[in-house]
Amino acid sequence: MKKFQKIMSLMLASAMIMTMLAGCSNSNDASNADSSTAETTEAAGEETAEGTNEAASNSGAAFKIGAIGPATGGAAVYGIAVQNGADLAIKEINAAGGINGYQIEYNFQDDECDNEKSVNAYNTLKDWGMQMLVGTTTSGCCIAVAAESANDNLFQITPSGSSVDCINGNDNVFQVCFTDPNQGVGAAQYIGTNNVAGKVAVIYDSSDVYSSGIYEKFAQEAANQPFEIVAAEAFTADNKTDFSVQLQKAKDAGAELVFLPIYYTEASLILTQANAMGYDVKFFGCDGLDGILNVENFDTALAEGVMLLTPFAADAEDEATKAFVSAYVESYGDTPNQFAADAYDAVYILKAAIEQCGATPDDSVSDLCEKLKAAMPQITVDGLTGEAMSWDADGAVNKSPKAMEIVDGNYSLIQ
Amino acid sequence: MKKLKLSKNIKDNSITYGIIIIAYVIMQIMIKTGHVSSLMQGLLVPLCVYIILAVSLNLTVGILGELSLGHAGFMCVGAFTGAFFSKCMQDVITIDLLRFILAILIGAISAGIIGLLIGMPVLRLKGDYLAIVTLAFGEIIKNIMNVLYIGKDDSGLHFSMKDSLSLGLDAEGTVIINGAQGITGTPKNSTFTIGVILIILTLFIVLNLIHSRDGRAIMSIRDNLIAAESIGINITKYKLMAFSISAALAGIAGVLYSHNLSSLMATPKNFGYNMSIMILVFVVLGGIGNIRGSIISAVILTLLPEVLRGLSNYRMLIYSIVLIVMMLFNWSPKLINLREKYSLKRLFKKPKEVQ
Q: Tell me: domain A62-178+321-400, CATH 3.30.930.10, correct?
């Protein structure tokens, strides 16, 4: 009797494992089914030239662009912005007849801002048949995914993964945003050459790659500049609500300017608390500060005079930005931030690169990547986040940062 | 009669090993024949990591009977020491497998030592107090990793807790652990096969420990501390033994984790208390003290969010609901009765009993 029970339980357990495995493979088959059209056209293209012509003439073939970012969790704001920004650009391109006559298919996957989940999202997109990746949104995930895409030789353009490690050693990865070092060096040079202040304090988030990356290069470059860093105070993601200690230290050290290489949520708290303790000082930030005027319950009068280096401002007066902002607000009911603009540009950069090299959806992922890699250093794109953007073969973007100052509740360009 | 009882353990254990080996063989056949999607292939190593974590935590929670919420902290120690070693030795030891095995050993030993050090003060506490203190230690480990800077140049290793500039490296020096930015560019050595071998190793250690003299001593502490003490069992020794073995195994899982991704950062997501609780959920769902259950629940709960990807943003909601339903189905007393009444086992059993 006992024996029977044991055998039975063994059978049941193994049956369960089998069904489970079968279950997952089934669900993957289902997701593969969605991409079957692309696969068949791809196969047809490889077999005969006729197949290619057919595919092109009936316009059934389409470029498959994937995107990855956090759509849930603490960093969801950025991921959703990228999702919508890329979506808007793709809709516009499709409505205007696509790239070289081919439509674009778009798929966005959530990575919860977790490296491991990001690789899962990347693999999901690969199963879907992705040919190019607009992503990932955050730096840490981007490093993990870039290693995978370099392995597969899949073309990747990250809208906002600003760490140098995203592009280092991966010749298939290109950036739309500045690298962190460029921002830190740029900010230090700006403060130095324009004589904004003599004594500078820095408040940064030591648990954040973006923030600590900028701070490091800022501090390095500061040694060559005529100003002095009198206080460098860190906070971490776990205690980012009370900044009175850091502000007090900056005040005691006699800082005339506080450099904030952080995101706008914390920056708004710092501004409020500095005002409450009667510390009147100039604030200087990077692109993470864009969006500070839209923070709820934040008195925008406090942000008056804040200077920031950012490639994009939603209130800018040029035609392209205005059109983008109004289309974005209409579609998604929200003012776009810099991440949305970066993603929007990323899609148009892809379009320019594809047009440059004349690639078609029938190219294999690896061929497409080789063509695009060769095309990237040749193109120049005027986008929302910079004019005449160009790329080196290593993947970093060349564009000039814009220094903005908040005047009367609006961003205005400092010349 | 005695013979039957002895072989019960062996049978029980061989079922556990059998499940792993059968699953491995099936997966290998499916990979070879090309029936496995890239998503599933990418998930294989994380699955191994979570199985090892669940089994090792079950040693503390199920066998020792102490609630530990700092398991992700030990995983973090293993992940960082293992990845650090691999990064340092990348040019010295060029044989990948050898370097990886050494990294696993180093990760396991350092996590074990940290487990021992933390265990000494912590295991004096019991129940809720222990849970809270281990939670705090797990967070401390994660936060230390976040401010730790280590660089390497010709004159040796440089340490700092401030920033990478104060390391004072030569021009050719490289920063290996860069504070919150962690370690990037760890060689990708983890494979499914190594993962499965490590699972079997973990099972071997844990299952043999349970059925050994020491394991019975550990379980006697769980069942009745005073009785165990009265018959001369060294409580401190056995508690520390179980705790540090569990930590060392978590360290192995950490090394496997860090060698699967090219960027390693100590974020609240992967090494914070969320992760510790996640592992605890595997253990509780699978059954406290039930090793096989931990394996199955770790597999199900890791796959679930990925299989549900089609539901996009609703998947985390569905995931939670499924979790609640599964917990109720497995452990609610009323449902256990209901299950027993209509179980397959019973349906098969009945005609035989009638005979």
A: no
